[in-house]
Backbone:
């Protein structure tokens, strides 16, 4: 890999804004007064869970049937 000056522009797709995305915030109380929390994301179009610790900056999963690279012309 050749190094260069400055940042690189990366184009990627996100699920944010897709009408098939459903998110749910969760929190779990653990031993020793610790808590764990996150956001579960689900694709209702495909019927699959995207991630248990999902964030809006995460890229669209490779299996997304609506991703431009996966659409059949």
Residues:
């Amino acid at each position: 890999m050749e190094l260069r000056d400055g940042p690189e522009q990366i184009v990627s797709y996100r699920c944010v804004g897709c009408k098939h995305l459903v998110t749910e915030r969760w929190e779990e109380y653990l031993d020793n007064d610790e808590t764990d929390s996150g956001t579960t994301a689900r694709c209702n179009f495909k019927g699959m869970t995207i991630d248990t610790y999902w964030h809006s900056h995460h890229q669209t999963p490779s299996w997304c049937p609506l991703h431009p690279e996966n659409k059949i012309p």
Notes: DSSP finds no helices and three strands in the chain. Residues 21-51 form one domain. Strands lie at 21-29, 35-43, 48-51. The mean pLDDT is 90.
